[in-house]
């Protein structure tokens, strides 16, 4: 299917969309195209034919059915915080923005579930859960703008995966509109349901290529008690994992993050934050746990002192208040926003936790050898094997040349990923940017199966065309 629209067909498409959702809910300005036609990536320029804002499931169904009739592509759009180009409309598609489908309803205190429309902001759900005395644990830096539908479509992870898992672990039920416009109601919030295939899991992480998530039943859990963070300075990658193993053996960690000295320097300089302590070390880890009682705190301090004696830790600090906890977390969470001004080339890669130190060294050696003048920023969720490699664009280099050079070195990085049995996209999805590299993580047989599944739910290929695979 050709998603590009001529001027004449564009006028027809816009007119047809206006009939479905009303003229006020179809936008065609250049400003709206720039805002709603892409995600946080800037490698591909947006070129949609229209932005449509449905306000009901029935309108979503009608738009998708019209896409089948007129043969135009649909790009589902949530908070547009993705980093792989999954929400980019570059070839005359219609952007289906779920912003106005943002109601929360159907809370059940016994089941601990809540029903959310796709446009509910992640932070909005977190606040709602807190008001009910409960907790929605999927959390990341973009929680204030990302939407639940987008989180589900990318199986978002974030900073607490080590304790709480990925988004898919909290989706008890789904309503999705397929590529034919059919509404499927999947799992209905059941904890136990072995009646055939669990189609819900196919749509979680499918990046809108099979259909549109329009509503979700989300599982909540108890609130954590007295969260406490330790930031520790460590001398090398290997020490990071020794610290992780030590603390994980004695405390139930809710997070274990890491970042480099270069990352810390950027955040301190541009966000006005204070360094955690005077000592300067190559890397830092931030670990979080529940201070359930004095024994837990004493145990944490004993493990810290033992790590110092072993030479795994140079210095450290423990949060003593909620405000200090938030500030320590900002040292890690503000990195992405801070480095965005350098147009970073991002690699979101993973391997099994036990191989992380060797994996990191291998990747860093390749990048430093190929581009010794490029600044490298490391950070990530090292407690679940997911690390983020960010190469910053020099001011003297134009964006096109920079991305071309980074793409070349990415092939060597992905060779390492393949050798370690890892993933070229741990949590950001495939979208447009990772599509050429899918073969490094998925076999030819797996990709063929994915394509066959897409044909079942989206036979005319109207849903997010050109994403994940061609």
From TrEMBL:
A GO molecular function held by the record: FAD binding
InterPro entries (alphabetical): FAD-bd_oxidored_4_C, FAD-bd_PCMH, FAD-bd_PCMH-like_sf, FAD-bd_PCMH_sub2, FAD-linked_Oxase-like_C, FAD-oxidored/transferase_4, Oxid_FAD_bind_N, Vanillyl_alc_oxidase_C-sub2
Domain FAD-binding PCMH-type per the UniProt entry, residue ranges: 44-223
Gene3D superfamilies: 3.30.465.10, 3.30.70.2190, 3.30.70.2740, Vanillyl-alcohol Oxidase, Chain A, domain 4 (1.10.45.10)
Domain of life of the organism encoding this protein: Bacteria
Family note: Belongs to the FAD-binding oxidoreductase/transferase type 4 family.
Protein name: FAD/FMN-containing dehydrogenase
